[in-house]
Design brief:
about 110 residues, mainly alpha, 2 domains, about 0% strand, rod-shaped
Length: about 110
Amino acid sequence: ENIEPVPQIFPVNVENNVLINEQAKSTYIGDLHAKLLDKYGTKFIWRIDVCLCLCFSLLFTDLAFRLFFCIASRCSAKFSKVLIATSTLLKTKSLKSNLSRPFSHDES
């Protein structure tokens, strides 16, 4: 029986594990892109890339708007609490000043 050793594409070292993973990912993505290019041709591949970029940009803008409105609503809620407290304080002071004045009946 002849058993041939399987050749390794990347030598495995513990300290280079992250580098190996990045090389493997970029090789996989490059191979996938090349297969799509061979399958669909150059006229179609740019449409896939543009579509992916458009989807990611829409996702990013959606997340950015959600984050902005979340922050804005929290700041608005804190600001409105201050306004409500201030207006309540002013109403209380005006009510106390009105109560401290003597009540008079004008009978005409």
